[in-house]
Amino acid sequence: MDYYIIIPAHNEEAFLADTLTSVLRQSLLPKKIIVVNDNSDDATGKIIEEFMQLCPIIQQVKHTSSEDHMPGSKVIKAFNKGLEHLDSDYDFLVKLDADCILPDTYFERLAYVFKGNPKVGIAGGFAYEKDNHDQWKLNHPMNDDHVRGAFKAYSKSCFKAIGGLRQAMGWDTLDELLAQYHDYEIHTDHRLQVKHLRPTGTAYNQKAKLLQGKAMYAMGYGFGITFVASVKMAFKQRKLNAFFDNMEGFLTARRNNEPLLVNEEESKFIQKLRWKNMLKKLS
Fold it and tell me: Does 21 share its domain with 136?
């Protein structure tokens, strides 16, 4: 199967070479790798150029956005910039962060999944990060049927059905909810262990603390689901402020009547699905 990879990269000189090396070691190589140099002022561009000389499937796309490392909108704007440079002659499409090391058979296994089951719309492995003892440990705070946004693959039909990726916080949850709305399945594989070189969220701007709650509003969660999800998040992170930040973000968005990322029918489906999953865990 044919696939393309898009890698948004903002000041990734410390990790990018390792990520590109792991991609070029794949048993099934991509047709093209687009690295979007998003306003970097370090050696990111130089690293991309060096790899371009080594491998013709790598292409650099320069993009100028804000210097703030905000979750959601910044990275997807860069992703969409890379998408403009690709055609539709692919079987699946990959959004990959510039700080990941993939196992050598990562995309060969995903190709096998997509080819074997057309109902699979999104697929991926699991993130491992180093702990305080320098050991690689599983770091997956979500359910096992969730694929982290750092290394996500979409079948072409699913990607088109969900209308691409939304430029907002929560895009990597909304894509899976919309995929299920369009009757696609999410596939995860514990054998695909991805080394995530930078712990999640460590580079995020402090202004992002209210964005999670605003994202829950924009995804059509409603007050009840947002409340329960925020309690769960605060408990898992052992940070009481996470609950209050989420609720403040949600209520601010609702008060300002900010636009939703979904229509009414999609919102009803999402709320029904989320309540069903929550109740299932309690039973």
Answer: yes
The β-bridge relationship of strands 120-130 and 185-196 is parallel
Looking at the domain assignment, is residue 264 inside a domain? yes
* CATH number of the structural domain spanning residue 141: 3.90.550.10
Domain that holds residue 264: 206-282
Tens of pLDDT along 118-155? 999 999 999 999 988 899 999 887 788 999 999 999 99
Asked if residue 212 belongs to a domain, the reply is yes
Burial profile 113-140: b = 16 or more Cβ within 10 angstroms, e = fewer: bbeeeeebbbbbbbbbbeeeeeeeeeeb
In a domain, 67, yes or no: yes
Global pTM reads 0.91
For the chain, give the longest Cα–Cα distance. 56
* β-strands 92-96, 151-155 pairing: antiparallel
Asked if 20 and 93 sit in the same domain, the reply is yes
Q: How many other CB atoms sit within 10 Å of the CB of residue 177?
A: 22
Give the separation between CA 208 and CA 203, rounded to whole angstroms.
11
Average pLDDT, the chain: 92
Are 169 and 212 in contact, with CB atoms under 8 Å apart? Answer: yes
